[in-house]
Prior knowledge:
This protein is of the alpha+beta class and 93 residues long.
Amino acid sequence: MYNVAYVHDDKCVAEKGCRLCIIYCPEADTIMMDLEKMKAVVVIPRCKGCDLCKVVCSTHNAITMHPVNQSTGEIIMGAKEGEAAGLGQAYAG
Ligand code: SF4
Ligand code: SF4
């Protein structure tokens, strides 16, 4: 089981110009701007669960990590976070 990132619209301030998660995500086209909502959104099948976006969003805490059902590819909200890939943790020190 692995984690993917999830953006909480109520905390994301992308409409004020924040793009930190989009800039720092090491995977191309994985966190995108939803131009209708003006919020960041994660493309679940592309996310590697590295935690880096969660680290760079620590001021607003708009991103949480959640396991994915590997059969269906769906995010399991409310489930305990699994082991991270470690990249973001390395950045966090
Ligand atoms: S870093 Fe956080 S607040 Fe900024 S765009 Fe990404 S999710 Fe939104
Ligand atoms: S967890 Fe890593 S790969 Fe997934 S969206 Fe965040 S920065 Fe990108």
